[in-house]
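Re: the 261-residue chain
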Amino acid sequence: MTDTKAIFITGGGSGIGRAVAQRFADQGWRVGLADVHAKAIEETKALLPEGCATAHVMDVRDVAAWEEELAAFVEASGGRLDVLFNNAGIALGGPLCETGIDDIERIIAINFTGVVLGARIGYQYLEKTPGSCLLNTSSAAGLYGTSGAAIYSATKFAVRGLTEALDGEWREAGIKVRSLMPSFIDTPLLDQTVTGSNENVRERVKAAGLEFTPLEEVADKAWEAVHGDAVHTVVGKTARRLKFAARWMPGSIRKQMRRGL
């Protein structure tokens, strides 16, 4: 096994995945960039030090793709998988009763089933790498059910629960399991149109007077999560306020969610 540490990132073509790739590459890590968009992967790869990254075009819903691409990355990394970053996800907003069944199935499959597949298939490599970590992207929407984004919120609660369960289950194998719980980040996810509206998520966030957390802060928190002891790492002012309110002011947050975002 080589000395160079290795991280495999789903959703590595943009947003949080790209920022985390840059953060870890700057620390001398080998990076596997996985995404459904080949062009986006190449754009991220161009931002990294030459020779440190490999490209993996894949859909996180595809079991065979997971098996093939993870095996290829671990071979390229000299047998290491120090971090598997389950980051790929999509956003979906709007009333549940107006949301198409196909959209519901798609967001569950990408945001949760894809994370489960990554964990299940990645375990064999994480187990063989001392001090390894499974890092999952949850969300501030996994702290309290988010009105107007019920299915998205539910998938992030599921990721949160999976993280907690595996943190206990995988302890004897020496694998840390962690989650990131960011608030609103200005990424392509916010360009999703809200069901039943002409607005996108970004416009709703701005109208509500909420802030966007810089991608660099998320990347720094990802580094801290991998190297720290907290199971969940909240990122951004909105996430920190929501965490506090969910614990200490549940009545207040309930009223807020009844009004919607």
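The beta strands are 6-10, 30-35, 53-57, 83-86, 133-137, 176-182, 232-235.
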